[in-house]
Amino acid sequence: MRTIFFILQKEFLQIFRNRIMLPIIFVVPVVQLLVLAFAANYEIKHLSIDIVDQDQSTWSRQLRDKLLASGYFSLHRQTHSTKEAYADLEGGRADLILNIPRHFERDLVRENKAQLQMLVNAINGSKAGLANGYALSIINSFNRSIRLNWLALKENDGPEHFDVSYRYWFNPDMNYKYFMVPGILVVLVTLIGAFLSGMNIVKEKEMGTIEQLNVTPIRKHHFIIGKLMPFWIIALFELAFGMIVGKLVFGLPFVGNIAWIYLFAAIYLLVMLGLGLLISTFTDTQQQSMFISWFFMIIFILMSGLFTPIESMPEWAQRITLFNPVAYFVKMIRMVMLKGSGWADIRYYFGVMLLFAAVLNSVAIWNYRKRV
Amino acid sequence: MSDYAIVTKALTKRFGHFTATDAITFEVAKGEIFGFLGANGAGKTTAMRMLCGLLTPTSGEAIIAGYNIYTQTEQVKKRIGYMSQKFSLYEDLTVKENIRFYGGIYGLNYRQIKSKTAELLQKLQLEREARQLVSSLPLGWKQKLAFSIAVIHDPSIVFLDEPTGGVDPITRRQFWDLIYEAADSGVTVFVTTHYMDEAEYCDRISIMVDGKIKALDTPGRLKAQFGADSMNEVFLQLARAKSS
Question: pTM value?
């Protein structure tokens, strides 16, 4: 125990004497939270639209006004020529084209139906989906109001659509920040856990001081605990700091019990520190260690469900995420923070994380040899 | 218990097909200053690393301070000190913090650490620099400090791996004063060096060529044996014999 204390004392001295450490601990989380939470927004406004109005009727103009009044679209060009509009779409100047054919109004009045064409630039798939969705819902509502008010059809005259009323549970305003911030907190904790801890061990190798330590009676586990524990402490502090920033800046709701999040983070960090330790056993310089950590981080974070839902990934990718600790934490922290999930809902995640921690650390310790 | 601090029997280390240390056998008496010489790549460092418990030998035996290096590694480690030319002190810690850290991990209590620190700073005349980072000290001071820290826990044996590389003759002389002082208090000193004048300071020396010990005796008798005026000549004769 005394040995560990002396190692810890030395580690903290070195960490805080390192000039970039304090900014990493205090500035990075604030910047990450502020930038990412505001930047990662799934709502898209001001999609640029080309409207090809070949009808030039009252109703075609009403449809146009309704689209533009929604705030989701801004008119890039109104034209009679489909060619011009195609050129805009190809040139990336327009996100979508609405083509209102000739006789739109006449067909609608006479035959009670009309056709519209919509062309969407789908280079960015999710943006295209949103553009399509917005436009459809606006057109539908336009359709409905025409049927009721202008064509004076009776409601039981076979309404061709059903009104679905909806409510978003757990995040009623669909505030994306509520959704993003907990995930970003996870990323923060992950970076400190895996990156810095691995580098910290490799640093001793790089400087050669590990030789000196290896001839002292320091035991393997003393050394490992002494090297990793500072980052366990710093990362948990970081989580608290991030949550306070989240609360103050974004008014993050804490529906569930924070203690669960903390307990989970404590176990989760064991997994990340184990990963850092494992990486350090394979590498000799901080550069190598950082590069390999980065490789894992990018996969873990992109496949964590933080930015894109895991459910929309292909089957095989979803299976990979079963081995992604970040995915579990992201899911769990959102459940607890936004939904107020309790022990019964999250105990599965605790079980998985404990298993990860046990396996990863066993492998890492087995691989770490005091005798080089 | 024998009177020897180090006893090795046919100690061998192979890396693949390459035999770095080939069945070396020798004894070092307690309190002796034992010089371990050899050209670069002769196997000195490998031998030393095995004796310190940093490398597991392929075959052979070694007893350090009465403990077996295979089975009693922890006891061995408590009784040896080690200093290498390249590393050992933490550059981003102060002089005092380095002393405290190494004292602490060798199991000294706070009172001992405090008195050792004071004693050591006074002996090395580093009192004014106690709160300075080690990185700001000149190389010679670092080496003297590293040696003093290597013997902070009063080990039976201290291993020095080219301890005086890259410093001026005066500092080297001062460094050897520290070694003599330690030897006088009963510490066995096992030292590798490339400086032949330093070899003359040793009680006995061994010269390794190609993984084998080619000569082992006091400097005086070695010179007589090879009909040489200086250790330099002895060394060159042995090294040349290898290349011819």
Answer: 0.77
